[in-house]
Amino acid sequence: MSGDDNRDRIFSRRLSEVKAFEFNETVAGVFQDMISRSVPGYSLLMRMIGLYADIFVTPASRVYDLGCSLGEASLLISDQARDTGCRIIAVDNSAAMIEKCRQHPPGATEIEWCRGDIRHTEIENASMVVLNLTLQFLQPEERPALLQRIFAGLNPGGVLVLSEKIVFDDPAENERMTQLYQGFKKTMGYSDLEISQKRNALENVLIPDSDQQHRRRLEAIGFNEVYQCFRGFNFVSYLAIKA
Ligand code: GEK
Predict the structure, then answer these.
(1) How many domains does the chain have?
(2) Contact assessment for residue 208 and residue 165, using Cβ atoms and an 8 Å cutoff
(3) In-domain check, residue 8
(4) For residue range 146-173, what is the model confidence (pLDDT) as tens digits?
(5) In a mutational test of the pocket of ligand 1, which residue from 11, 22, 23, 63 has the highest number of ligand atoms less than 8 Å from its CB?
(6) Position 157 in a domain
């Protein structure tokens, strides 16, 4: 549970100008509350990542958490993969996020908290790569190259966990899912003003792909098995496995 100081109120007052969303210190300070109230099923997604670690992480391999934010996925993997001797590398380009990550007490498996750009992270000997709600923040034309590098750096049997907000090709479905998602945010305590100002701040910052775009791209890159393992309104999570 977040204490009151950690509650996300960033967009609760009417702002004279809504600036483009950034993962700065203010956001890092309330991020846990923000993400758990903004992503339908976030805690379930986390539990699923723990389960995947149990199944896919192999001895002496590497695990990458790309766009780790406060490191929640890495902490779960650290616990779950305690007997594998794996190396967990958690990367984020937000200094504020990584600074907070470094304050976590050491887990069962050591985590290397790296401030860096995932577009340049070297990926090798990987049994699991997590891109939980991060690919959507890269420019669309930069996404295939990162996914190709991940594929190349995965060992046979390795897995990519890709969770994203999506858009729908059918306008009616898109409108309905947007309506349901906004309804979800209201049930999580966000006001209409907060919802609309946050949406404006994310415009051109979070650029979602469609389900078809994700699947086609993953398959074209060479992933042999691609499964949509979770969907909550317009949020999905895929498991993409390299044979
Ligand atoms: C979680 N995975 O809790 N390089 C490194 N980091 C980046 C880049 C980049 N090029 N672009 C964005 N980020 C987390 C949640 S949040 C999702 C991920 C959200 C980072 C950015 O700084 C932020 O911390 C994260 O990606 C996206 O499971 O806020 O919706």
Answers:
(1) 1
(2) yes
(3) no
(4) 999 999 999 999 999 999 999 999 999 9
(5) 23
(6) yes
